[in-house]
Amino acid sequence: METVLSITNLTKKFGRLTAVNNINLEVKRGQVFGMLGPNGSGKTTTLGMLMSVVNPTAGAFSWFGELPSNQVRKKIGAVLEHPIFYPYLSGQKNLELNAMIKECPPENIPNVLELVELTERKDDKYKTYSLGMKQRLAIASALLNDPTVLILDEPTNGLDPMGIAEIRELIKKIAANGKTIILASHLLDEVQKVCSHFAILKRGNLIHTGPVADASKGTETIEVHADVEGLNELLLNFGGTSSIARENGYYQVSLRDSFNSKDLNRFLFEHGVVADHLVTKRKSLEKMFLEILAEANH
């Protein structure tokens, strides 16, 4: 797979504060790459450097194997911080202005309006738009020059649940059209729902990177309930049990590698117990995120 973005030892210091510390990262074509971390972890500063808005203190990065230049930047669309539009102009007119500034053909405007589902509101003034619509117009503007890569900084910040759902669906739609997307977020849920790969930043340090799918791999936990005496002892006697906890009236049985819920169910059945509740739970990104952050504290 082609490498779209390659970051080597990228560092940014503001006086004595190191906002981004020696980051190495690669993003491949077609990935939806989430940069995940609490506020103040260096996500926005990293994106600022990648867009040449912030100058790095040390290190380097390349887009499509080339050093950053105006020509290369034309292949990148970005929505950073608060997009600036004219409140008294319509969505259509704002996009026409942006197309002129970016030197893109105005014929692209109907396509991007259609994609972000603003065609019906294109002649309404920008100031009448909801927050979600304003964010969708910003994404439309970033897509005007049909970029290869789209960069989004906290794309659902401040939106209501409906607006959040709309932006997430839009990101999936844009990714399905083959664009590479890099998004910064402090929301686990967002990264888990829309990203294929992710990196975790903490106080400017990159502490983990990998596919989102891998985050839910690992040991299975089985939630079990049965109306019998001594279920606890029986579960402890099962060869695949690595640990047991009690939660909300259920036993949470963490299994050893290579054991699964079928094995446990069969074991119970052979001992004359029929479970009335047996649910498999995989490790969530949240659990992994908290584990990784906890490890980084030590």
Write up this protein.
By secondary structure, the chain is α/β, with parallel strands linked by helices. The chain folds into 2 domains: 3-213, 3-Layer(aba) Sandwich (Rossmann fold), CATH 3.40.50.300; 221-281, 2-Layer Sandwich (Alpha-Beta Plaits). The protein contains 11 helices and 13 strands. It has helices spanning 43-50, 70-73, 91-102, 108-115, 131-142, 161-176, 188-194, 212-215, 231-237, 261-270, 285-297; strands at 3-14, 17-28, 32-36, 58-63, 76-79, 149-153, 180-185, 197-202, 205-211, 221-225, 241-247, 250-255, 277-281. The strands form 3 sheets. A 6-stranded mixed sheet has the order 5-6-7-3-8-9, with helices on both faces. A 4-stranded antiparallel sheet has the order 11-12-10-13, covered by helices on one side.
Question: Can you summarize this structure?
Answer:
With 298 residues, the protein is an alpha/beta fold. Helices cover 34% and strands 29% of the residues.
Sum up the structure in keywords.
298 residues; alpha/beta; Rossmann fold; Alpha-Beta Plaits; 2 domains; 4-stranded antiparallel β-sheet; 29% strand; elongated
Strands of the widest sheet, in order across it, are 5-6-7-3-8-9
Task: Examine the coordinates and then state which fold CATH places here, giving the name of the CATH topology of the largest domain.
Answer: Rossmann fold
Tell me the count of domains.
2
Looking at the overall shape, the CATH architecture of the largest domain is 3-Layer(aba) Sandwich
Give the number of DSSP strands.
13
Structural class: alpha/beta
Helix run count: 11
- Fourth CATH level, the homologous superfamily of the largest domain: P-loop containing nucleotide triphosphate hydrolases
CATH class of the largest domain: Alpha Beta
Mean pLDDT: 90
Order of helices and strands: EEEHEHEHHHEHEHEEHEHEEHEH
The unreliable regions are: none
Helix content, binned percent:
25-40%
